[in-house]
Amino acid sequence: MAKDGPKEKLTERSGNLLLWLFAAVALLPHFLTNSRYGYFRDELYYIACGRHLAFGYVDQPPLSICLVRLSSLLFGDSLFALRLFPAVAAALTVASTGLIARELGGRRWAIVLSCTASLCATVFLANTNFYSMNAFEPPLWMGCIYLLVRLLNGGSPRLWLWFGLLAGLGLENKHSMTFFGVAVVVGILATPARRHFTQKWIWLGGLIAFLIALPNLIWETQHHWATWELLRNVARSSKNVVLSPVQFLSQQILIMNPGTLPLWLTGLLWLLLANAARRYLLLAIIFLVTLAEFILLHGKVYYLAPAYPMLFAAGAVAFEGWCQSRSRWVKPCLLAIMVATGALLAPIALPILPPSTLLAYLKAIHIQPPRTETSHTAALPQHFADQFGWPEMAASVAQAYHSLPPNEQRETAIFAQNYGEAGAIDFFGPPLGLPPAICGHQNYFLWGPRNYSGNIVLILDDRANDEREEFQSVTDLGPIASSPWAMPNEQKLHVFLCRGLKKPLREIWPSTKEWL
Predict the structure, then answer these.
(1) Would you say 129 and 350 are in contact if contact means Cβ atoms under 8 Å apart?
(2) Contact 220, 226 (CB under 8 A)
(3) What is the rounded CA–CA span in Å between residue 246 and residue 200?
(4) Does 376 score more than 90 pLDDT?
(5) 461 FRET partner, CA 20 to 30 A, in 25, 234, 479, 487?
(6) Would residue 431 count as lying in a domain?
(7) What pLDDT is attached to residue 4?
């Protein structure tokens, strides 16, 4: 026994080194590419929300907004600085995958295969290359799974306290953590792990999660469940692409990288069927319940992505065991396939190529990223198209604004149609001498019309039909400058100079509300 000690210690040390190595490698693609295009639409909105800190927002809980504010205070608002935390989240996702593999009984090859799968997953590359709450979901979900596996392996029940902490942070990051939490509860009740409900620690962990999420719950009640209203509006609209179960499942293969399919599918089957994995059946149930939830509720295709690293880990352990004494070529071949397909799809996820070259590349490989919103008609994938045109738009508005006499500028409001446009005015506008924008979209509606009277308003719109009914005079100052790679609806905007609002701005403000 003593003889094996140093060997085990060496194995643990080398495993830790592998995890650190893969985490460092996960940072590189983002450090090399995340400043190549421009600010993403949602990033501009996040920055604006960070200047209005609160315990909740119409379309999200507060954690990601607090982090973007912290990032701004520590590092500034450059693209690289803004996207540093998402890059770190990518590294944590890869490392947590390897940790789960090791806790499931995996050794070096299991760590290598599982970490490589997470590293090459197309959706993770895309979602962590710009600032988004989606970047932080996988490490939070998988942090909970790692603790859960340790508990299944006989770890201290006090680990439920840490589970509650991560679950609470997950709820404060994105409300979809609720679906993951429901799946965890179902999985525990359906397996021998239900014995944990007879102990106090799981309940204390749940209490911790609740207390962390409580400020956001209070905010929601104070704002008449704003997020629920938003979700109902989206469900009633045709905003999101609705997928059939078959379409949802087939697109999972693409966004997770087709090369990883053998690994995660094997992981799911191993968890469901293998005697050696009977203790971990809970993980398969969590995945399947979460999958069913998102299919039934018509979730976007990437909503399930945070659940895959545990399948990567399980599949890697299964392959390592099966190939230990036979078919040793399978592991390096699987590794090569994942890396090759990951490299093939990387330009879809990362801004590696110039836009025109990217379009030619997509045509050559006959692959198009799945659309998640019906309004996306840009030539580029949406997560790229939404990174173009914002500085040009702000400059056009500034030109119109400064064409007015100074005494009129002081009372001129700038009204935008959505939070991307308003966020661009607020971010790029101050150096150009622009005042903050007003807007009825999402949380901008709650920030109100400020102190503007509505006597003079510069409005961004593609036509002025509504404006001509609401104002005494409307002058088209011309189209905004834009980028040919921007979203088509942003390229069609004009700046309209509107004078003499027929009703007080505060009186008509409720009609500007657009939570969609």
Answers:
(1) yes
(2) yes
(3) 42
(4) no
(5) 234
(6) yes
(7) 40
Residue of 174, 163, 139 whose CA lies nearest to 65: 174
Residues paired with residue 473 on neighbouring β-strands, in sequence order: 499
Average pLDDT over residues 346-367: 95
CA angle 154, 157, 158 (to 5 degrees): 135
- Mean of the pLDDT values across residues 357-380? 85
Confirm whether 198 is domain-assigned. Answer: yes
* Average pLDDT rounded to a whole number, residues 389-413: 96
> What total of structural domains would you count in the chain?
2
CA atoms within 13 A on the CB side of 331: 22
> Residue 407 sits in which domain range?
390-512
Q: Which of 123, 188, 119 is nearest to 151 (CA)?
A: 188
Per-residue pLDDT of 54-91, as tens digits, reads: 999 999 999 999 999 999 999 999 999 999 999 999 99
The pLDDT confidence band at residue 11, using thresholds 50, 70 and 90, is: low
* 171 and 50, same domain (yes or no): yes
Please tell me whether residues 154 and 268 are part of one structural domain: yes
Distances in Å between the Cα of 207 and the Cα atoms of 149, 213, 230, 374, 378 are 21, 10, 27, 40, 46
CA 57 centroid distance within chain: 16
